[in-house]
Predict the structure.
Amino acid sequence: MKKKSLLIVCDGLGDRPVNGVTPLEAAYTPNMDKMASEGICGLMDTVLMGVRPGSDTAHLSLFGYNPFKYYAGRGPFEAAGVGLTLKKGDVAFRCNFASIKDDKIVDRRAGREEEGLSELSREINNIKIEGIELIYKKAAGHRAVLVLKGEDLSSNVSDTDPEGEAIGYNKSKPLDDSAQAAKTADILNEFTQKAIKLLAEHEVNKKRTQKNKLPANIILARGVGMKASIPSIKERLGISAACISATTLIKGVAREVGMDLIEVEGASGHVDSNIKAKMRATIKALKKYDFVFLHLKGTDEASHDGDFESKKNMLERIDVEVIGPILNDVKDCTIALTGDHSTPISIRQHSADPVPIVIVGDVREDKVKKFTERECAGGGLNRIRGLYLLNIMLDISDRVKLYGA
Ligand code: ZN
Ligand code: ZN
């Protein structure tokens, strides 16, 4: 009988021991452990052994798309995540509103202060540059997306964001000898200058300065990418799919592979996110879609902050508020619980340590009883590659065709 499939990803789930235990080992997670007891466990290299995955490349892989083939920079996914539809050949950048004084960047995030940024974004969107169409759209917080549409563009150009403070911004340079790269770098530099001019005199910044807030007086661009053509998950696997996530980048990846996005009120992508609402939306979505993907970001945020307790608490919240109710309510469904990469507290960045994974459903139950990095290492799935996960799940859900006769 064909079953539904549910993939639950705790971002940055995996870790290394701190004083002998990982956050997952320290957390009280009876529901995750129930999954381990009833399911088949293992470790997973989401991209490849020894490769430190970004959240974007990891998710592409988890959705069955080889990132070495389909990944062409973060920009296009960020653009898709804010609802922009790109055409092949369009170039997209991630942008930050930042603060500059005397040609030196004083804050790369404009004090993380959102006041007036929507208004500024609308006006920047109206900047005209000869020969191309330009779109500028605000994303979460101090972030935005810049899209260039036109003939003969290239993503082989350098960033204007120096990714540091107390230094100047960069002039974009072509990274090859092509006319396309030279043209695109020129356009980005012209955009940067026009934006600086517009922002310098703007009322919004006068108000911000009066209130002792940093002005948003420069736009820094990075993460350039050119829209690639990606076949949809429906075309490739014949399944309908939905994504529940609060993170622009992940929503973008999901949208680019043809998944429907389900918006959930109160889902923030932070440790205080309304994950109960996401759980309810997941249960509802499973009635309609063959495959549902639920993304929980708080674990990664806590990891980047180097906050062991916060990661442990987030895992405990996920256990009671998400995993418990789903195990109770969802029937006839293959459920996988895993991460998109490890983000060890000790290094506060992504690592290539494989992530624990458990799959429950019509599986060969193994001897693992606890859902942790080290227990899962002894499970029946052994060590798998992320690219194969969706196929494995769809096979368990009885949705894979016979290869051969
Ligand atoms: Zn991630
Ligand atoms: Zn991260």
